[in-house]
Amino acid sequence: MSDPIANIINGAAVPASSGRTLPVWNPATGEQQAAVGLSTAEDVAAAVAAAKAALPGWAATPPARRARLMMRFMALLEDNREELARILGAEHGKVREDALGEIQRGIENVEFACSATELLKGTYSRDVGPAIDIFTQRAPVGVCAGITPFNFPAMVPMWMYPIAIACGNTFVLKPSERDPSASLFVHALFREAGFPPGVLNVVQGDKVAVDALLTHPDVAAVSFVGSTAIARYIYATGAAHGKRVQALGGAKNHLVVMPDADLDQTVDALLGAGYGSAGERCMAVAVAVPVGEETADRLVAALKPRVEGLRIGPATDPDAEMGPLITREHRDRVAAYIDAGVAQGADLVVDGRGFRLQGYENGFFLGGTLFDRVTPEMSIYTDEIFGPVLSTVRVPTYEAAVDLIHGHAYGNGVAVFTRDGDTARDFADRIEIGMVGVNVPIPVPVAYHSFGGWKASLFGSHAMYGPEGVQFFTRLKTVTQRWPSGIKEGANLSFPSMDGS
Ligand code: NAD
Question: Where are the beta strands (DSSP E) in 141-213?
Fold first, then answer.
C-alpha cells in the first residue's frame, strides 16, 4: 500500500508525524484502499503557524483580488467535477449523480464567496454630530479552523473556507479521517487558481488533531459540522479557549403528509430524501408523519414497492441510485437499529438487512428499510440512525404532528406536504425547526442564504455560509471620525451625545 495520506502545510505535502494511521476503505468492496496519517498536536501547530504567517499578506490583499482568485478556483472546480465525483464515490461510496449534486452545491458557496467586494462593504452615516461621520468595516478574525464530517467530503468544507478566505482569513481544514482524499484534490485546484501557500492548509487526523485546534491560542474561530455529541464538545471546548465557534450537529427530520398532499409527489420526495446517499445526510428525512389512518395506509402502500425497487450498487454503476454505507461498523450499527425497531414492536414493512449484491458481498451495503407504526419512545424514532431507514409515525391530526416534532430533541430540517396554503403558512410560522420545506423535502438553503438548525442541531449563534458565514468570519469595527477644522468646542467632560458634542 502506498504512503499514508498526508497533510498539506504551507502548500507542501507533509506526512503526519505520529506514525499512527487509520484505514480508508472502499465501501463498495469492503477492502482497504489507503491509510490516512493521524496528526499530532505538533503537526497541527505547524499548520496553524503556516496559516498565521500567511495571514498579514492575505488580510491586506484587496477583496477584489481575493474574489478574482476565487473565480478561477470556481472555474477549476467546474472543469474537474467528474474527477472529484469519482474520488467521492471511491471513498464515501455515493453514486455519481449524488456526488455531482454535492459538488454543485459546494461550488455555489465558492460562487457566493466571489462577491467578496459586495459582502465586505461597510455602512456609513454622515453628520452623526457636528462634522462627525461614522463608518463600519468588517475585519477578518484571523486563523480559522474547520472540522468536517464524512458525509459531504467536498461540500461541507466549502461551507466554510471559501467564505472565510474571501473575508481575508487564513484556514486550517481537518477533514473526516474516513474520506480524506477529496480535500487534497480540492486543495491542489485551490493552489492552481493562484492562492498563496498557507492560506488554506489541510491536517488529517482524529480527536488528537481536533483538540489541538480547539486549544491552540492562534486559532480565532472554529467551524464544525458533525454529530451532536461532538458538536456540543467542540462548542464548549472552543468557547472555553476564547474562540468563536459554530458547531452544527445531528438531526432527525420529519416530513408531514397532510391528507390533501399529492401522493405521487410525496412518495417521490420520501424516496429521494429518505434513501438518497443511503440516508447519510443531516437533511435526510428519517420520519414520515402521515396525518390520518387513510393517508397513512395509502402512503405506506405506495412506498413499499418503491423502497423494494431501489437500485443499489457501487458508485461505479451508472444505474445505481444508492450506494453502500461508509464503514462496516456503521452498517452493523444501522442494522442493529432495525433489530431494535422490530424488538420494540414497530411494523417492518421492508427489511434491508438481507440485501446482498453479487460481486460485492463484502461491501458495506444495506437495503432500503421501511417501518410503519413507529412510536415516539422507540430508539428508531429518538436516535439519529444515519442510514437508509425510514420510520412512519401515524398521527390523528395536524396538531398532533406539530406536537410530535416539537417533542424531538433535534431541530435541523422539516417538511410539510400539502395543497393547503393556510396549513403551510401556519406550519412554517409555528414549527420550531431551523429549515422548513413546503412541498420541498430537503430544504437546504441556497448558498446566498444560510444553513442552520435549532435545538440540538446547532450550537453557537451563527448559522453556516451565506450572509451568516460572513458575520461569523468577520469582526465588526466602527470608526467615528471628526476633522476638526473650523470647529473649536473646548473640553467637554460629559458623555458624548448628539446634543452635547
Ligand atoms: P462525527 O461527529 O463522528 O465526526 C465529525 C468530525 O469530528 C470529524 O472530523 C471527526 O474526526 C471529528 N471527531 C470525531 N470524534 C471526535 C471526538 N471525540 N473529539 C473531537 N473530534 C472528533 O460525524 P460523522 O460521523 O463524520 O458525520 C455524521 C454526523 O454529522 C451526523 O450526525 C450528521 O447529522 C452530522 N452532520 C450534520 C450536518 C449539519 O449541517 N447539521 C451536516 C452533515 C453532517
Answer: 143-147, 170-174, 200-202
